[in-house]
Structure formats: C-alpha cells, structure tokens
C-alpha cells in the first residue's frame, strides 16, 4: 500500500513538473511586444487631437492608439530627449504626428530633439526601424528650416506640406487594395471621408501610392492640380516608412476605418506583415509633381489689376 502511494505521489509530482516546465517554456517562447514611440511634439501649430488633457492626461490620439495597438508596447510622449543615441535603441518604430522644427522647444515648450538625437533617428530608420507619419508629420522640419527637398526628414517621409484648404468631404482613390489595412474603407476603387487635406510638394518619386487625393471638385487653390499621393509606403534604406495625411479631426481618429488603415500601416512598418511596395507613383498619380499656384495677396491682386488697366 505504501509503495502504491509513493508511486502515485511521484507520478503527480512528475506531471506537475512537466506542466510547470511546459508553461515556463511557453512564456519564454512568447515574443516580446514591439515597442512603439508615438511622438507628438508640436514645435509649430499644436493640433487639438494630440493636445494633452488637464494635468498632462493622454490626448485623444494617445488614448486611441494605445487602445487599438494592443499587440504593441506603445509609449506616448512629446519629449525629444527620447531620441538621444543612448535611448533611441529601445524603440522598434516611431509614429509621428508632429509640427515644426523638432530641435526647437517651440509651441508646446516640451524638450526638443538634440542634433545628435535627430541624426540618431535618421540612422535608426535607415538601419531597419519602422516609421509611421500621420497628417501634420509632413509639416515637420522641411520649410521650417528652409531646406525643402534637401531636408533629410522630407527625404525620409516622402513629401512636404505646402498648405491646406477648408476641412471638407473628399474622395480618395485606392491605388493598392492589397496593402495591409487598405481595404478598411470598404475595399472599393474609391471612398469619401471628411478631414483636413494637405497639399504636398517635394514628393519623392519612389513612393508606393496606396490612396490618391482626387482633386477634382475640392474647395481651395491647394487642389488646383492633378491627383497626388495621399497615403503611401516607401523603403528608406532598410527601414519601412508609411504616411497618410488623414488624422486632423477627432472623429477621424475615432473612425474604425481609419484605425484599420493605421494598424495595417503600423504592422507593415514594424515588419509584422509584408507587402509589395514597388514604386507606382508614375502610374497611380502621373501628375503628382505639379505644384499649385498660391493666389496673390489681395493688395497684389489690385496692383496687378491697375497695371493691366
């Protein structure tokens, strides 16, 4: 009887040990979540969607991105010191909704990037880290430093903000239905949504266009041009870059279709999924390089009219 009890006890202990080992092995085998920095410093205009609440509470966009990107470790910050060479390595990818020269304290008075941090950021993307830019990310660096197309940030993101018209309902044409998240707006050839739409210049000729801005019928001189890229992907060295000019309005951020598109872009940028991002800009938006003409100020218009008379 005693030997039987001992044998059962041994079998129980052995089984428990195997179960513990199995659980421990599963936990060890589980891959760590990729760490994402959602960077929203506003050295220029501060958009309401990324403005912190009372007492530094998370912004509207902070809360939504953290909620929908549960498969990631999301850090929301406006602190440019996180790009310093001894800190930037902890992040796998970066999501920007930023304005102005990020090496300046600027509008929101948060710590700027150092020059070393800015260079570390470019080096990180070229070396294989991911980047996602939203809305005003193309209103960052560039013309704020007077460099335009020669600015390394504009070269990275793929285009530069020139101006925008009034917020309005606009049509976007789908150039690549197969890109991750592209079908979140219904999977058709086009769709419409209301937002604030950026007109862009210094557009990189190597873009893989996902959505094109349909300019016909839009209100504003900014859209007096052929259709141009609105959402795209490109490679920057070994790094994956995704950008969409959507994301100004609170209701856009709350829209599940926008969230689906954003997650698709983030999954691709971080390497969780793959996609064909061969440049298609010439076929998708053949007139993309046309720059719309800004109207003369009223005084100049009157002077020009007098001269003609």
General description of the model:
- The longest helix is centred in the N-terminal third of the chain and has 28 residues, at 2-29.
- A hairpin with a 2-residue loop joins strand 10 (228-236) and strand 11.
- The chain is globular.
- With 309 residues, the chain is α/β, with parallel strands linked by helices.
- It has eight helices and eleven strands.
- It has helices at 2-29, 60-68, 115-126, 152-157, 250-253, 256-269, 281-284, 298-308, and strands at 34-39, 72-77, 93-96, 130-134, 160-164, 168-174, 190-195, 198-201, 208-213, 228-236, 239-244.
- A nine-stranded mixed sheet has the order 2-1-3-4-11-10-9-6-7. A two-stranded antiparallel sheet has the order 5-8.
Strand and helix order: HEHEEHEHEEEEEEEHHHH
Strand count, sense and barrel status of the largest sheet are:
9 strands, mixed
Q: What is the rounded Rg?
A: 24 Å
Q: Which regions contain 5 or more consecutive residues with pLDDT less than 50?
A: 4-12, 18-24
Number of helices: 8
Shape: globular
Q: Distance N terminus to C terminus? A: 119 Å
Task: Please state roughly what percent of the residues sit in beta strands, choosing from under 5%, 5-15%, 15-25%, 25-35%, 35-45% or over 45%.
Answer: 15-25%
What is the residue-averaged pLDDT? 90
Helical residue percent? 25-40%
């Amino acid at each position: 009887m005693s030997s039987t009890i001992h044998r059962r006890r041994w079998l129980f202990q052995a089984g428990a040990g195997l179960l513990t080992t199995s659980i421990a092995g599963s936990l060890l085998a589980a891959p760590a979540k990729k760490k994402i920095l959602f960077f929203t410093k506003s050295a220029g205009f501060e958009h309401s969607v990324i403005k912190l609440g009372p007492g530094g509470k998370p912004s509207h966009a902070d809360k939504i991105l953290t909620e929908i990107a549960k498969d990631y470790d999301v850090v929301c910050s406006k602190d440019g010191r996180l790009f310093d060479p001894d800190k930037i390595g902890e992040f796998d990818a970066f999501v920007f909704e930023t304005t102005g020269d990020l090496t300046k304290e600027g509008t929101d008075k948060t710590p700027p990037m150092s020059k070393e941090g800015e260079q570390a950021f470019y080096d990180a993307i070229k070396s294989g880290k991911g980047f996602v830019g939203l809305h005003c990310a193309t209103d960052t660096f560039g013309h704020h430093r007077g460099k335009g197309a020669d600015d390394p940030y504009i070269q990275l993101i793929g285009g530069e903000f020139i101006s925008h018209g009034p917020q309005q309902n606009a049509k976007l044409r789908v150039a690549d239905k197969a890109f991750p998240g592209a079908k979140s707006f219904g999977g058709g050839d086009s769709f419409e949504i209301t937002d604030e739409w950026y007109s862009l210049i210094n557009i990189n000729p190597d873009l893989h266009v996902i959505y094109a801005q349909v300019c016909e019928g839009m209100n504003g001189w900014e859209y007096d041009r052929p259709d141009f890229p609105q959402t795209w992907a490109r490679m920057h060295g070994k790094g994956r870059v995704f950008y969409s000019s959507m994301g100004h309005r609170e209701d856009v951020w709350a829209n599940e279709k926008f969230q689906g598109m954003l997650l698709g872009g983030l999954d691709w940028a971080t390497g969780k999924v793959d996609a064909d991002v061969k440049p298609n800009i010439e076929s998708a938006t053949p007139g993309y390089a046309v720059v719309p003409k800004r109207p003369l100020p009223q005084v100049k218009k009157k002077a020009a009219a007098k001269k003609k008379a």
